[in-house]
Description:
Strand content: 35-45%
Number of helices: 2
Radius of gyration: 26 Å
Order of helices and strands: HEEEEEHEEEEEE
Structural class: alpha+beta
CATH topology: Lipoxygenase-1
Number of strands: 11
Distance between the termini: 64 Å
Amino acid sequence: MKKLSLMLCLWIVGIVVLGGCKKPANDDQNLDDYNTVKSAKFVITTTNLAANDNFSIQFTGGDTQGAAQTMFKVNGAVQANQRTFSLTYAQLKAGVTVESTTPLNTITVLISGYSVTAGHTFSFLLKPVINGAAGKDVSATLNSTTSYTELFDYK
């Protein structure tokens, strides 16, 4: 009887110990669920931008897995193997649309600039649409005495 009790106790302890090693249901959750920016679109226009104006807009994307290398397209052209890129003067002058190509955890937009020429002013407008919802427009008028630097995170 003692052997049976001992065997039963060992069996119960074994089940409890091995049952505690079971993988929780949340561990098999897809990491894509953390990529909350399913789609993003940014329309950027400028007014009176001159070639010698110091103005830049840089985009950086991040995904939860850290594996995506191609995250954006500019005016429909895929930006292959670029997690970070800056828009060119020609793109900014003509007006440009930047869109995400894959779900992302975060998108950072850095905007900075000023006019180099005394008396010259220019302006820009950035219209974000995140997951189909219009975000807050970003705009400013810049000249040689007014500079602008701002970092925006979209999550």
